[in-house]
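FAQ: What does a ligand-bound record look like?

Like this one, built around calcium ion:
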Amino acid sequence: MARSAILNVMVQAAMKAGRSLARDFGEVQNLQVSLKGPGDYVSQADRKAEDIIFAELSKARPGYGFLMEERGAVEGEDSQHRWIVDPLDGTTNFLHGIPVFSISIALERQGQIVAAVIYNPAMDELYTSERGGGAFLNDRRLRVSGRAKLSDAVIGCGVPHLGRGHHGNFLLELRNVMGEVAGVRRLGSAALDLAYVAAGRMDGFWETALSPWDVAAGILLVREAGGFVSDGKGGQDMLDGGSIVAGNETIHRSLLKTLKKPVTPR
Ligand code: IPD
Ligand code: CA
Ligand code: CA
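The answer part, i.e. the structure of the complex:
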């Protein structure tokens, strides 16, 4: 599988940061962590990984801007290009020794996501995609699942926790969804949730209150694997609006409908 020069740059940055995260994951107990908010820790590992990605991408494409979780927005001379990066998605898993976390890097060109890398260093799973070129897990081409019925589907979600709002609304959504599907999962990394939808491991995924760096790369992966992605209302405001619904064409449609149903007591 031939990768373009720009995708290679992204893969190199993700792998280098991934090696650093993997080392720190091995010593997770010894890491000093600072509390950013209840249930939302930022570790030194997180910052180190972001520094590596920032340095690698800046060196390869000096003018491009950034939107990164820790640094925030960094303007570049080139207003056409922006990297959208989460150096560690799945921080809570990472700190608890659960090997489900990832690095997510997307490249936006003129407001459109054109390349994406999501890497889980603990499992050495590298997801890559370029607009129009398909989606891959390592060297294997990805396709969303073919399941058409919600009753056969495994659906991923995000569960709000301490310090986050939307608890009541999530429970209403979950009540609707769990009554119609074969299983519900909560991985703890939105980037990997979307990568799993692209890989056909999960048939659909929904979450609210996300940030652009959680979803930018995953949106392209799902689409390039033949899937559908929208915000919770069926529109396209996923990056700024924070809500997302993904799946194959049928599951995406059914999931949107199910999420919006008025809840009937059971
Ligand atoms: C979190 C993960 C998680 C999602 C949270 C995100 P972080 O990102 O993507 O799955 O439910 O809302 O904030 O904090 O681990 O980078
Ligand atoms: Ca995140
Ligand atoms: Ca993060």
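Follow-up question: can I read anything off the structure? Yes, for example: The pocket of calcium ion (ligand 2) is lined by residues 86, 89, 214 (CB under 6 Å).
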